[in-house]
Hints:
The structure holds two protein chains of two kinds.
Chain A: H1 2-20, H2 24-27, H3 30-64, H4 67-82, H5 85-95, H6 105-131, H7 134-142, H8 147-177, H9 189-200, H10 203-232
Helix pairs in contact in A: 1-10, 3-4, 3-6, 3-9, 3-10, 4-6, 5-6, 6-8, 7-8, 8-10, 9-10
Chain B: H1 4-45, H2 47-61, H3 65-75, H4 85-111, H5 114-122, H6 127-157, H7 169-180, H8 184-216
Helix pairs in contact in B: 1-2, 1-4, 1-6, 1-7, 1-8, 2-4, 3-4, 4-6, 5-6, 6-8, 7-8
Amino acid sequence: MWIRVLAAMLAATLTAIVILSFQDGFKVFVPGLLQGAWLTVQIAVLGALLAVVMALTAALAKLYGPLPLRWLAVAYIEIFRGTSALVQLFWLYFVLPQFGIFMDAFPVAVLALGLNIGAYGAEVVRGAIRAVPKGQWEASTALNMTRAQMLRRIILPQAFVAMIPPWGNLFIELVKSTSLVSLITLADLTFKAQQMNQATLQTVPIFTLVLLLYLAISLTITICMRFTEGWAAKGVLHGKAS
Amino acid sequence: MWDWAFTIDILPVLARAAVITVQATAIGFVIAALLGLVLASIRLSSPAAGLVVAILVELVRSTPLLIQIFFLFFVLPKVGIVLDAFTAGVLAIGLHYAAYCSEVYRAGFENVPRGQWEASIALNLSPWTTFKDIILPQALPPVVPALGNYLIALFKETPLLSAIAVVELMQRAKIIGSETFRYTEPVTLVGLFFLVMSLLSAGLVRVLDGWLSRRYG
Lengths: 242, 217
């Protein structure tokens, strides 16, 4: 039932954007904002890829790595979950150059957001792996599998199902935190909005369009993750298959 | 590279700004916790109003807090409501987290067994008494740790207020940076402050969680 409400909300949002882009007060802002939205989507997608890779690596290192690697994973997770995304972004952008490491704003944005969400994701992955029933491990041992085989063939596919809903939330968080990159001079949706706002003072139409655009991106992700959930839960007896 | 004299110099200035950060966190969380409870209660009381609340919650959760802060700060004056930066910012943070908190309370309400409602009807308790004396005391303790986690999350979002020039910790660090061209010390100190506070409060939440589950579990 809820997925229909979500779909209706997305349809209403897109319709509103299309209708507004033909209105006189709004028309001028649409091309610039769409440009910004495109950069937002790029950062979000690359950040999400980095986050998934970091989360899997850190979770596996924390669970099964040798001791120094385990400490490294714990330090990474605690540091990136313990400080603000904004502070991390500023640190990478303003402080790293002091140590001789120069990066453009775009890689810094992807890196900071990917690492930040990856740290939260690591705990999601760890929780999902721990939630796989113990019998699955024992059966794998009985079948004489190596640890890598167990993880790849038995544990991770089951953990994957439990991971999807929290990952959906994290991806939404990621999209929302991309608005922070406007503060390190990247021309994303938020940056464009502020720029246009300062130039024209047409606050109401600009920020209405921006809210709608973010809403469209987030709702698309939410709906996609719902479908993935249904698809992944097929044939799995555990977990909430809805 | 790291200037200790400069660090000692800026510490008191940052400490004063930290007070603003803590104030924003406290007021924002009070708004979030109370409004969240109201939203969750509405959702509990009527399915039709509940759907409206659910859609509102989804809307708030799907858009960035930064944009919501801008919206309150820049758009509200157009309709005649002029708020200063601190009020607008704290209000935005409170409203944003109220949406999250309402989901937490909802989980708490759903965990109260059906029989409790039925028994209250059998005892001829009014809906208000049922809610206040039977349901709430059972629904709240299990969700306190989850609320605590949102308090920490809210605390870490307060640097966003720097975007509308509220002089909290991050804004103060940026001002120091632009005045002295030294960003390393102030930004690192702000990061450390948040790290220490978050770890401390995460520990506190864990202790609270243990205590609650012993007392009510």
